[in-house]
Amino acid sequence: MDLKGRTVIITGGASGIGRATALLVARNGAKSVIGDIDEKGGRSAAAEGAAVGSSVEFMPLDLTSPSSIDGFVAAVHDRLGRVDALINAAGWDAVQPFLDNPPEMWDRVIGINLMGAIRLTRGVLPPMVAARTGKIVNISSDAGRVGSMGETVYAAAKGGLIAFTKSLAREMARYGINVNCVCPGPTDTPLFQRQPERIKEALTRAIPFRRIAQPIEIAQAVLFFISEHANYITGQILSVSGGLTMAD
Fold it and tell me: Inter-axis angle of helices 16-27 and 215-226, to 10 degrees?
């Protein structure tokens, strides 16, 4: 897919799905701009892209801080102009029973997984609206579609991101802006690897393909949504879960 000349923001691009997406988008000709709080990981991803001749740039971004989001948006627009696509891939969770969650954990989960995406999207939209073109892809989770034990607030935040996707798609269609959502199932990311071995094994057995996803497999779905092949698709929620969830 030819993305030459396009500028694409990828949050959470320092690791996992975000990193795989940033590198894949850059390999297809776009300039990937990674926004992440993990400076070491972000600069490592940028160096990995540069090593193969791809354009990947890192800029610090803390999605729990409105001022950091505002500064990030201003820096991107000042240096690179209008953003052609935004991929809200950043996510965070701590798996534990809901009754054991401290309230500050709720704030962090919702801040990163939902409010950070909302604030950043609001920041990049005005130039897209003026140009009457743009692509937004939100990375939610199948937890937000069907629920997940030990991830109740995370599921709530990701469910909110799904609803945000659908409603924003309706508002932005008049401007020619596509808004879609990818919902990964269990994926081989640093977050997944922190799970107890028994949980990882149980999830693998539950997936019809009998394996968890690799980050690149989620990234390929995102690439489709920001490509010209998806110009007539908006407001859609695509599960990439190896058949784990077959819900409407």
Answer: 50
Ranges of each domain in the chain: 7-240
Condensed to tens digits (0 to 9), the pLDDT of residues 139-158 reads 999 999 999 888 999 999 99
Torsion angle, alpha carbons of 53, 183, 187, 154, to 10: 120
Q: What is the DSSP letter of 149?
A: T
Name the strand (E) or helix (H) holding 153. Answer: helix 152-172
Q: Report yes or no on whether pTM surpasses 0.90.
A: yes
∠ CA 22-232-134, nearest 5°, is 45
Token pair in block for residue 23? 């590198």
Please write the tens of the pLDDT for every residue from 22-46.
999 999 999 999 999 999 999 999 9
Select 7-240's CATH number: 3.40.50.2300, 3.30.70.270, 3.40.50.720, 2.80.10.50.
3.40.50.720
What residues are annotated to the active site?
A: 154
Burial of 187 (0-12, 13-18, 19+ CB in 10 A): buried
Q: Is the dihedral of CA 239, 220, 45, 75 positive or negative?
A: negative
Residue 55 bridge partners (DSSP): 31
Of the chain, the end-to-end C-alpha distance in Å amounts to: 29
DSSP state of 213: B
